[in-house]
Amino acid sequence: MQQDSLLPAPGGLAAVPGREPDPDAAISVRGLVKRYGASTAVDGLDLDIRRGEIFALLGPNGAGKTTTVEICEGFRDRDGGEVRVLGTDPASGGRRWKAQLGIVLQSGAGDSQLTCRELLRAQASYFPDPRDPDEVLELVGLTEKARSRGRSLSGGQRRRLDVALGIVGRPTLLFLDEPTTGFDPEARRQFWSLIRSLRDLGTTMLLTTHYLDEAEALADRVGVIARGRLAEVAVPSELGGRGRAPAVVTWTEGGARRSEATATPTAFVRDLAARFPGEVPDLAVARPTLEDVYLQMIGEDRA
Ligand SMILES: Nc1ncnc2c1ncn2[C@@H]1O[C@H](COP(=O)(O)OP(=O)(O)OP(=O)(O)O)[C@@H](O)[C@H]1O
């Protein structure tokens, strides 16, 4: 291990001693650097994703999410740092390593002339221990479309087909890049339950998304990337100190809307209730949403 960390990383940069990747993590990244010409897209990023968790990577456009994910998938070279994905450096990952990954890209294979079932059968044939294509169609809710051509599917159905293609190889680790873009609200909810059932089957998932409600609904932990670095990692309810943030109590009194930020909302509401003979008019107690704290973090970073 020690020996390994002293080897130069691809691109010639020495790894940082004493900061070896975690061998037990599904994904472990230390000091990742990626440059495109003079601009640095990823700038010393550290990241650990545990086996079995759903991890959501958030960040504004151009923050470096896709670059990081593509390096982890083995699709892109890096200029520095250490990366281990399922214990292997993606820069040298062979077929057996690749067969453990499932990848759902932003633009999938939906334009095909083949039927959904044919596409899945073809994809399954590349893997040593694939799932049954018909079971996968059922899992993603496309059984009725088994004989339909990819190009005849709606946008949301194509995305489901993309997911089906990503999971038919029975991946240990699934990458999902903005998976629900273009879904209607009901399709998103159905997709979320599909993702949860994959987690119940033991699949680790790295998700990038711009939907904060999606990150909140699905992720065990979220990481925010800003300017090529990981700004914070937390469970969704704790991000940006959210769990400790004061609650805001609002109500109507004397014809006017009133509000109070308080660290003890229960006591405050009890006192408030004592002032009214019945219900407190228009009473609401709110904490900052994930979107509130995320936008604040991104705003501070840009300031
Ligand atoms: N092939 C490329 N050549 C040159 N620059 C690139 C290339 N790919 C990405 N970049 C630049 O690297 C930076 C990070 O891009 P990346 O696609 O990783 O961001 P992202 O966080 O995934 O953004 P988005 O949310 O818009 O998908 C951006 O400034 C982008 O313009």
From TrEMBL:
* InterPro entries to which the protein is assigned, alphabetical: AAA+_ATPase, ABC_transporter-like_ATP-bd, ABC_transporter-like_CS, ABC_transporter_ATP-binding, P-loop_NTPase
Region of interest: Disordered: 1-21
Q: Which UniProt keywords apply?
A: Antibiotic resistance, ATP-binding, Cell membrane, Membrane, Nucleotide-binding, Translocase, Transport
Q: Where in the cell is it found?
A: Cell membrane
What residue stretches are annotated with the ABC transporter domain? 27-252
**Which parts form a coiled-coil structure per UniProt?**
none
PROSITE patterns found in the cross-reference section: ABC_TRANSPORTER_1 (PS00211), ABC_TRANSPORTER_2 (PS50893)
What SUPFAM superfamilies does the annotation carry?
A: P-loop containing nucleoside triphosphate hydrolases
Listed GO cellular component terms?
A: plasma membrane
| Membrane protein topology class | Peripheral membrane protein
GO molecular function terms noted in the UniProt entry: ATP binding; ATP hydrolysis activity
In the record, biological process GO terms are: response to antibiotic
An example of a Pfam family matching this protein is ABC_tran
PANTHER family reported in the protein's UniProt record? ABC TRANSPORTER ATP-BINDING PROTEIN
Quote the protein name from its UniProt record: ABC-2 type transport system ATP-binding protein
